[in-house]
Amino acid sequence: MKKKYLLPVFFLSALSYGQIGINNLTPKITLDVRSKTTDGSTSEGFMVPRVTGNSLKAAEAAGVYADDQHSALVFVTEAPDPNNRTGQVEGMDASGFYYFDAGSNRWVKMVSSGTNTAAVSQLLCSSATHIGVLEAGEVSAGVETTIPYSGGNGGIYSGMSIPSTGVTGLTAVLLSGTLNNGSGSLIFNITGTPSAAGTAVFDIDFSGFNCGFTRTVQPNGSFPDVVPVIINGQIRQMLTHNLGADTSQDPNVPNQAIMGNYYQWGKKNVAATAYTSAAAISGWNTAATPSKAWNSGTAAAPVKTVNDPCPNGFRVLTQNEFIGFNTASTNSNIGSWTLSDTNFGTAKVFTNNGNIVTFPAAGSRQNANGGALGSRGNVGYYWTSSESTNTTAAYGIRFTVSDINVTYHSDRNAAMSIRCISE
């Protein structure tokens, strides 16, 4: 086989012209590639890197693609798994050529002429779903609205910013991206500071469809109902009070009113309150709770069920989410950490994303003792939605004055505190 060494030619061309030619000595542009033959006897073309969608998702986690990689071109051999189609690979639903757009922080599909303009057959504003809570005068963080569509053509759409009417001061931001072929959704991030309590209206004009959605802005009370926290690199909203607590009380000053309720794993009904007697509870529920009672999805893509006791737009966090929250936080202690049925002044304080979130050490209601109270004042127990392979157990969080166990394993019929995060 005859070998042709082109490297010296590259250097000579670059030195002479500041340009490089392949299979020619007179390049007319920065890189000028000519075919070796014209009779079809050899394969011709330019091969770009071939990668999978899952590998590009992994690259996002590693911070590989950013401003310096703007306009990078790859051929995606297979779309990422459905639960991976977020962030930079959102909308990557098929194989094909994709380029990296640093401005929108997305891989954008290159489509044939005639289909590059986004088009849908239906934009379903009436089926919009919402995440997060808005409060008058409070900066919006972790608030999103998702609008489904059907009949997507795989076309490219530009980003848009839609100012609110009614309650002003907010903007719904849609990043540029690529439609799915078929059904999908558009995700609007709600930014800004609402000017007042009431209803914020957002009017959308997309692919010839004019519709809109509204978001309720709550009055600004004495204490915020939610704070934005960092969980696994994402901004999420977390309720400032335990589920069932008196939300008119300062969530960062432990007392009986902010202890909240106690819930058995996987069940919606309240098992006990902070005011229930410490003794065993007559008729204590010992019925087995099936797996996926609070999360019908997966650990990576949780889905709230009808049994989840958290309010609309919020759910019980998973074990992995609490681990992420704890990792991004520093913590300190309040109170004496002394075991007593009447010790309501002990709590673990997490500082996350510049915000303070206080978790009272409310103890638990013990299944083995018919729902009798245990450990109030010196241990905090909080459920996650993650079940164990042992069908009678699930995962929670246990903390004391000196440690936090994020993989605590407990009887599903024990009753513990709950703290909710945005879906």
> Helix amount, in percent?
under 10%
Helix-strand makeup class: mainly beta
Unreliable residue stretches? 1-7, 9-13
The description of the largest β-sheet is: 6 strands, antiparallel
How many helices in DSSP terms?
A: 3
Q: Look at the structure and give the mean pLDDT.
A: 88
User: How many discrete domains?
Assistant: 4
| DSSP summary, beta strand count | 32
Q: Which descriptor suits the 3D outline?
A: elongated
Taken as a percent bin, the fraction of beta residues is 35-45%
Computed Rg: 28 Å
Distance, first to last CA = 62 Å
Label this structure with key terms.
single chain; 423 residues; mainly beta; Immunoglobulin-like; 4 domains; 6-stranded antiparallel β-sheet; 4-stranded mixed β-sheet; 3 helices; elongated
Would you write up a description of this structure?
Helix 2 (53-61) links the parallel strand 3 (50-51) and strand 4. This protein starts with 6 loop residues before the first helix and ends with a strand. The longest helix is centred in the N-terminal third of the chain and has 11 residues, at 7-17. Helices cover 7% and strands 36% of the residues. The strands form 11 sheets. Strands 7, 8, 10, 12, 14 and 16 form a 6-stranded antiparallel β-sheet that branches. Strands 3-4-5-6 form a 4-stranded mixed β-sheet. The chain has helices spanning 7-17, 53-61, 319-327; strands at 20-22, 31-33, 50-51, 73-76, 96-101, 106-109, 122-123, 129-131, 134-135, 144-153, 156-157, 160-163, 165-166, 170-174, 177-178, 181-192, 198-206, 209-218, 226-231, 234-239, 263-264, 314-316, 329-334, 347-352, 355-360, 364-366, 372-374, 380-387, 393-399, 404-411, 415-416, 420-422. The chain has 423 residues and is mostly beta strands. The chain has 4 domains: 1-42, no CATH class; 50-109, no CATH class; 122-218, Sandwich (Immunoglobulin-like), CATH 2.60.40; 226-422, no CATH class. Residues 1-7 and 9-13 have low confidence and may be disordered.
